[in-house]
């Protein structure tokens, strides 16, 4: 698949590497093509290139947004025409929120001409995206959003890069809940000082 990634920092960079590893074409959508966080990704894989944000979006069927949450509306507006395209939102409105919204998914929906939006890859640290294997088995990933098409694509991508199961939280009304779930990881890993090498997996009896 052709995947545009807007925001090539910790999370966007980790996803770019992993998706390139499994054969996807990654186009980083950047503000300044000569200077941006993650520029070294260009030498990581021949499957990774960079372009302006509108050109990256034009070339892709999947768009991943991974920028600071308070910039969501501005970045969503900068994408241009995204009709029929899928947007994967990896963001969490941890402290700063997109103005007028409680979560980033709602801010994307309000500022883009696609309803194919899913939240995914937001519930764990970027180190766990680079390497989701614990005790010989992938950790779990989680999605939220009303678009079945977007959910299926996010699920497939998560499994391709090593996540074991992908559990769906529900529709767009669960955007805030999945961000709160991410805050639980942040709380344990960072605020309660358990360390970032920890992850969630559902177990059953
Ligand atoms: N860090 C984690 O482990 C983690 C885990 C799960 C979810 N998240 C969420 O993922 C998002 C990204 O976090 P991160 O840690 O990857 O951030 P980061 O390393 O600080 O990277 C931010 C990226 O956003 C880009 N950016 C900033 N302003 C922009 C704009 N106006 N237009 C286009 N691009 C812009 C930056 O590009 P430039 O180089 O041009 O500045 C940079 O590539 C956040 O919402 C965070 O809550 C983070």
Features of the shown structure:
alpha/beta, two-stranded antiparallel sheet, 205 residues, binds NADP nicotinamide-adenine-dinucleotide phosphate, Rossmann fold
Give a quick rundown of the structure.
The protein has 205 residues and is α/β, with parallel strands linked by helices. Helix content is 33%, strand content 18%. NADP nicotinamide-adenine-dinucleotide phosphate is lined by residues 6-12, 30-31, 36-38, 66-69, 71, 74-75, 90-92, 94, 122, 125-126.
Helix-strand topology string: EHEEHEHEHEHEEEHEH
Based on Cα principal axes, name the global outline: globular
Instruction: Count helical runs.
Output: 7
Strand content: 15-25%
CATH class annotation? Alpha Beta
Fourth-level CATH superfamily: NAD(P)-binding Rossmann-like Domain
User: Approximately how much helix is present in the residues?
Assistant: 25-40%
What is the distance, rounded to the nearest whole angstrom, between the alpha carbons of the first and last residues? 37 Å
Identify the strand order in the major beta sheet.
3-2-1-4-5-6
Largest sheet: 6 strands, parallel
Q: What CATH architecture label applies?
A: 3-Layer(aba) Sandwich
Report the bound ligands by name, code or SMILES.
Answer: NADP nicotinamide-adenine-dinucleotide phosphate
The total count of strands amounts to 10
Rg result: 16 Å
Averaged pLDDT: 97
Number of domain modules:
1
In the CATH hierarchy, the third-tier topology is known as Rossmann fold
Indicate the structural class.
Answer: alpha/beta
Task: Please mark out the parts with pLDDT under 50 across 5 or more consecutive residues, or reply none.
Answer: none
